[in-house]
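Researcher: Predict the fold of Cell division protein FtsX.
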Amino acid sequence: MRLSFIFSEVLVGLKRNVSMVLSVVLVTFVSLLFVGSAILLQMQINGMKDYWYDRVQVALFLCPPDSEAPTCAAGEATTEQKDAIRAALDGQDLAPYVEEVHFEDRAMAHQLFEEQFEGTSLAGTIPEDQMQESFRIKLTDAEQYEIIDEYFSATPGVEEVVDQNQLLDQLFSIMNVATAIALAIAVIMLLCAVLLIATTIRLSAYSRRRETGIMRLVGASNAFIQMPFILEGVIAAVIGALLAALALGLVVQFGVQGWLQDQAASFELISLGDVLLVAPVLVVIGILMAGVSSVLTLRRYMKV
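Model: Structure tokens for Cell division protein FtsX follow.
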């Protein structure tokens, strides 16, 4: 009997404040959409780090004919210089740091360039004789790039030592900033949602002050009187959270997996399974947000 009465009161409250409830649903939807996006973006960043850091290489670019680098004063890297560099990479000094080495000549560099930019305006723009030869080094520990850099920075025949790890760090730093911005917007929207839920509950309690006064007179407890109002906020917030999860699922399924995965087929992007992991988190955040704001509001304004 008590449960049926509580749910009937919840329905009455939802019907009386349809516009306010819709406002709570929408602001919760938007705020949790940003929260979910930030979580999924961070999951993608972590997945990309695991993928790329396992494949990161250090490149020793050899001197081309017209280089102005001090180590290229004698002109293009000679066969003797290449042999000396190869011997150093295969030597005992660097053995603990170097896992694998392969030489990339102009023909191979040109082929990889054409494959990478196939179908773009860059394809066919650089002839093979202008490509730069290099040694590609896979390290046992990608963070020990400085050892290779110091070892070959003054070696004749080596124009430049490039660590792909540094380029990746810059990319991931930008993506982390994007995650932080999304979280900041989400926090602002969550605050707006909390304030709107508090206002909605307060108006609902005010419109039913006679009923709550009668319930208090007949001995109803505070928890029993407040429960319908709390459930109103929780229901609206849960609907918003579910809509946010649904929107994220549609974007991931048809945007990320449907289109973006074809453009980045070399590594795995976030999937619908990741959204299913995030969805309960959004629902819990919505419930806590609505529940806490409702309880605090009722404690202050609902004194019969």
